[in-house]
Design a protein that fits this description.
Helix content: 55-70%
Mean pLDDT: 81
Number of strands: 5
Distance between the termini: 63 Å
Strand order of the largest sheet: 3-5-4
Structural class: mainly alpha
Low-confidence stretches: 1-12, 149-154, 164-179, 222-226
Strand content: 5-15%
Shape: globular
Length: 264
Amino acid sequence: MRWKRWSLLGLLIAAACATVPYTNRSQLIMVSKADEVALGADAYREVLTKESITRDPAFVNPVREVGERIARVADRPDYKWEFNVIQKDVANAFALPGGKVAVYTGLFPIAKDTAGLAAVLGHEVGHALARHGAERLSQGILVDVASAGAHVLLGNQSPAMQQVTMAALGLGVQVGYVLPFSRSQESEADHIGLILMAKAGYDPQAALALWQRFERAEKDRPPEFLSTHPNPDTRQEDIRGWLPEARQQLTSNLAAVKPLPAVR
């Protein structure tokens, strides 16, 4: 019976292959688009009820203007794009499946202007286009299956040995698979975001300047192999390699670059 379960899993994996737009990377997604979008919408509503959403047009208007410009070139009319601003001193932004995006006001001083904001929002829209949320859910399913399989294989060992082995396996999965996978998704979102911001009329060189500002702003950071994100210097090096490709997508209809408001 065990081999039948693994055979079924193999068939499910074979049927769940997809391709990331722009990078053409093969990915494993075991979650339907409808379920992914519904989960994203639910999570977004939950976040917005718990956070302080600002209605100040000085912050909201540039985020929506830049975000909608990038969403148009993303060419996903089936996504219900939404861009909101959270009043919080956190230099971050996030995207949830189906086109739900939020930016924290703490990011504005680092983004500096609408070109820097385009680099941020291009990255977040890139996550949504690449279906990274569904891919992470699928990864979680596989890790759970592997963990259950390890429990079966360790069935004849003492409880103490099982506990030690499973703890080591958990650390190995986290450091050797989950974290590198997360960093690869972040790099992929950088790559896609660079192309999207150029197609939307923003000079992709602004993304390099953004990460240089991030590097100056960050103080304590864990080693890259223990982090979910690449280090800023790694991102800068990658972006330099992708800039020629992105510049080919730069439209003649350039967007006006405007300074972002100061955070009070």
